[in-house]
């Protein structure tokens, strides 16, 4: 195809696209109206004071998630009082109070069922005050979607690479018995209970030493002298073996970005979470924090760990410098004492926050440290055989 013809086709495609956008039937301009402030709010201040909300209940198909404020902190009741994710919680409340009504709807029972606004399909959200009194009940139905490029687009636009498909851009809701369409998708109401957990977690950076203990016996120890060095296996290596550098390196980063999926019942039976037999991983970092972590065997496709303790084991007495002046001593002593206090406080905080809980982590998360001594070794490469020497022909 000549370049001139291609340019003409592209120009036609663009024109068709513009005409399509301007004339497509049923495509709502309500999204723009909502953004411009022309639409009424779903929950105006006259109906709900967000500062009075001290509880939220999400119910669907008999399953319930309760977020409750207790002693000034939000918790997830279905997860044994584990702290709630404040970012997710605040974002949801802000979305509720900022959301605008795009369109009021008159729906038959059949239409409500199709839009999941009946008892079988809707997510019922109750906002409660500190006494447990329900302030507002809202039913969240199906999300409203909009077709993307390729989904009903003109042929010319599809030729330009439109992928098609639908994206959510609103939600069907029932509030105070009235059915409405709003300009917010409210995806969090479809999330499972783990979405509402505070996912802040510990991490171990710059591991200095590492050890795995089973039944009170050390399986292996690793150590390095500085942050730029590699971890080395603290053991005598058999003559026919050498250490596997990649596996040693994986230990160094094993808990740099650790995440958890869920929390277990603190009173769970050990056999139910793979803790009938456990291993203990002990690591220190270059800030002299020592982490002791118990973990069990895989159970029903899940693995669990418990942060047994976090301790600061550094030197608590400052050694004066050789050329230290007397007038500098007090400031240096005070700075050192402050640093020690901060590290001890950090250890206490980590213990308080994480030690009471058992965490479900990905099955891959412990793979780097759940190894035997032999896993860190590999066979030495066999030497190449020396080439045979050819005998020079004898001169007669």
Description:
The structure is a single chain. With 396 residues, the chain is of the alpha+beta class. The protein folds into 2 domains: 27-196, no CATH class; 207-319 and 335-379, no CATH class. 22% of the residues lie in helices and 29% in strands. It is built from 7 helices and 19 strands. The chain has helices at 3-23, 30-35, 86-98, 109-114, 155-159, 245-252, 326-354, and strands spanning 55-60, 63-70, 73-76, 82-83, 101-105, 123-128, 134-147, 166-175, 178-182, 207-214, 217-223, 232-233, 241-243, 262-263, 279-285, 289-295, 303-312, 358-361, 377-379. The strands form 3 sheets. It has a 9-stranded antiparallel beta sheet. An 8-stranded antiparallel beta sheet has the order 12-11-10-15-16-17-18-14. Strand 10 (207-214) and strand 11 (217-223) form a beta hairpin. The radius of gyration is 32 Å and the shape is extended.
Cα-to-Cα separation, first versus last residue: 79 Å
Task: Provide a count of the helices.
Answer: 7
Strand order of the largest sheet: 4-3-2-1-6-7-8-9-5
Number of strands: 19
* General shape: extended
Q: Approximately how much helix is present in the residues?
A: 10-25%
Count of structural domains: 2
Radius of gyration: 32 Å
Strand % is 25-35%
- Main β sheet profile: 9 strands, antiparallel
Arithmetic mean of pLDDT: 87
Helix/strand-derived category reads: alpha+beta
Order of helices and strands: HHEEEEHEHEEHEEEEEEHEEEEHEE
**Unreliable spans:** 6-37, 152-162
């Amino acid at each position: 195809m000549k370049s001139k013809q291609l340019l003409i086709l592209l120009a036609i495609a663009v024109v068709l696209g513009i005409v399509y956008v301007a004339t497509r039937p049923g495509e709502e301009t309500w999204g723009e109206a909502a953004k411009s402030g022309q639409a009424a709010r779903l929950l105006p201040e006259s109906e709900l004071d967000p500062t009075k909300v001290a509880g939220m209940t999400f119910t669907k198909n008999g399953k319930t998630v309760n977020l409750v404020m207790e002693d000034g902190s939000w918790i997830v009741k279905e997860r044994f009082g584990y702290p709630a994710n404040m970012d997710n919680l605040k974002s949801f409340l802000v979305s509720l109070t900022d959301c605008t009504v795009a369109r009021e709807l008159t729906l038959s029972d059949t239409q409500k069922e199709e839009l999941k606004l009946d008892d079988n399909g809707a997510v019922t959200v109750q906002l409660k005050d500190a006494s447990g009194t329900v302030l507002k009940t809202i039913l969240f139905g199906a999300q409203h979607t909009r077709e993307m490029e390729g989904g009903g687009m003109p042929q010319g636009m599809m030729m330009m690479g439109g992928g098609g498909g639908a994206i959510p851009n609103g939600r069907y809701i029932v509030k105070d018995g009235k059915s409405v369409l709003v300009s917010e998708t409210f995806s969090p109401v479809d999330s499972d209970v783990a979405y509402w957990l505070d996912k802040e977690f510990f991490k171990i950076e710059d591991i200095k030493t590492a050890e795995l203990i089973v039944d009170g016996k050390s399986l292996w120890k690793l150590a390095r002298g500085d942050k730029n060095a590699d971890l080395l296996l603290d053991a005598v290596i058999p003559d026919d073996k050498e250490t596997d550098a990649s596996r040693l390196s994986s230990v160094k980063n094993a808990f740099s970005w650790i995440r958890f999926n869920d929390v277990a019942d603190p009173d769970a039976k050990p056999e139910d979470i793979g803790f009938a037999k456990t291993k203990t991983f002990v690591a220190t970092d270059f800030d002299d924090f020592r982490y002791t972590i118990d973990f069990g065997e895989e159970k029903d496709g899940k693995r669990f760990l418990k942060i047994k303790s976090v301790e600061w084991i550094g030197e608590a007495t400052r050694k004066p410098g050789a050329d230290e002046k007397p007038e500098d001593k007090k400031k240096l002593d005070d700075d050192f004492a402050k640093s020690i206090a901060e590290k001890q406080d950090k250890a206490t905080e980590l213990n308080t926050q994480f030690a009471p809980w058992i965490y479900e982590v990905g099955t891959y998360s412990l793979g780097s440290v759940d190894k035997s001594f032999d896993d860190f070794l590999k066979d030495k490469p066999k030497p190449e055989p020396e080439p045979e020497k050819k005998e020079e022909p004898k001169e007669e």
